[in-house]
Amino acid sequence: MSVFALMIAVMLAMLDNMIVGTAMPTIVGELGGLDHLSWVVTAYTLTTAASTPLWGKTGDMYGRKGAFLTSILIFLAGSVASGAAQTMAQLIGFRALQGLGAGGLMVGAMSIMGELVPPRERGKYMGMMAGVMSFAMIGGPLVGGTLTDHLGWRWAFYINVPLGGIALAMVVTLLHLPARRSQGSIDYAGAALLTTAITSAVLVTSWGGTEYDWSSPVIVGLSALAVAAAAAFLLVERRAVEPVLPLGVFRSRNFSLMTVIGFLLGFVMFGAMTFLPLYQQTVQGASATNSGLLLLPVLLPMMVVSVITGRATTRTGRYRAYPLIGGALIPAGLFLLAQLDVGTSRVTSALYMVVLGAGMGFLMQLTMLIAQNSVELKDMGVASSTTTLFRTIGGSFGVALMGTLFADRVHDSMAESAAAAGGRGGAGGGGLSGDGAPAQLDAASLERLPAAVREAYEYAVADGTHVVFTVAAAAALLGFVATWFVKEVPLKGADGASEESPEESPDSTDPSTRAEGTVSPV
């Protein structure tokens, strides 16, 4: 039953953004502050990313149960405060608090899973975690729309309270982990430098090409600050007694590869989830209210494959074939999606999405499993938080880069169409922004445009989609290359037997490290 509590926490972390995204138009209508809308997302993302490695290290040093309970309480406090917000400024601040707690939810769940369940059995439960995540991504927009329409947008935040309360009660009463108290001190300098580097990087990816030009002093300055803070962080961590991110974990080839693959997986996954609905709504005329169902051809195979792969890994103790298969399917699916145009049917695009979803299913949880299997038990939180962090940052970079490329291609295509029609006025004029693109992208606005302008915009979006998925396919090919270097290290079974090599999986070399955390997961 304790694993069920962990799954609720994972669902909370995944469900929140999906629900809130659906409620945002209503929130802006009531609170105003359209110019600051992006900060509702940025504040949450920023504190989540910055706190992720800190939660992992705190759990390693002082006990995972206490850190996990604290993160749930902070997340729930932020949820209640966000639901009660009276201004956009308040909502942004409370979302930052909520994100601070969210940073510990996923890391805490994965770290505790690593301590409760031996590596050989872990694949089955991580497959179930992937299923929960996929369910949240599918159901989130539908739940958010229903709550907003019938109970009001504030319930998009209040819904977290009963779910979080159940998880909190189950963790307190059912989860029993050994107490832990580190003799070392907290690496404050390393934590500050890492937070600065992450914050600067996230702001660059969030603001670059949107709030500010990529060549603006703000973006250039933040980029320089991120690089300088990262360099200083590496120097400090070499000397720290209890580093917030022990650099020694990167000596494991598999761990280092998982951080790279996780970064690229986040790059691809978040980009696909952002631009596929845009293409389907704009070019294929799908309804925005069904945005969760639009992604079903991606999410359903991802969920099914994750569960099957997890069970197969548990049964055999081997996994190397799965990253290879997933690494091949992802760029194949993205290359197929790059062929989408104005004439592509929904059935065809859905088949392409199935290929991508299956590929992500092979890698989604295995990156975490292999990373955890490559470190000592005392560094389980660091392994979980580092893998999660790199995936998050990869997603931020992916959405930012693809968004810039998409917008540039759409604008260029609209300008070309306007020029071919004898200028913007010849293309219909009304409803266009200064660069020839429609001023608003929603379906209702597009329907009001002249037929020639609407058709030109559909072609422009198809062109932008082609560019986005071509770039994503190229990034995914790098991930495929990385999967070939993953070393097969058989996972340890529940009985303690293992064929693992000490240098690749230190946590299996000392039976005492496993014994202290062995608790029945159900």
Automatic annotation (TrEMBL):
Q: Which domain of life is it from?
A: Bacteria
Q: Does the keyword Cytoplasm apply?
A: no
Q: Which UniProt keywords apply?
A: Cell membrane, Membrane, Transmembrane, Transmembrane helix, Transport
What are the start and end residues of every segment in region (Disordered)? Answer: 493-522
Q: In what ranges is there compositional bias, type Acidic residues?
A: 497-507
Residue intervals of the Major facilitator superfamily (MFS) profile domain: 2-491
Which Gene3D superfamilies would you find in this protein's record?
MFS general substrate transporter like domains, Multidrug resistance protein D
Give the transmembrane ranges: 37-55, 67-86, 92-113, 125-143, 155-177, 189-208, 214-236, 257-279, 291-309, 321-338, 350-369, 467-486
The record gives the membrane topology as:
Multi-pass membrane protein
> Where does this protein reside within or beyond the cell?
Cell membrane
Q: What NCBIfam families does the record tag this protein with? A: efflux_EmrB
Which named protein is this?
MFS transporter
The lineage, from the top, is:
Bacteria, Bacillati, Actinomycetota, Actinomycetes, Kitasatosporales
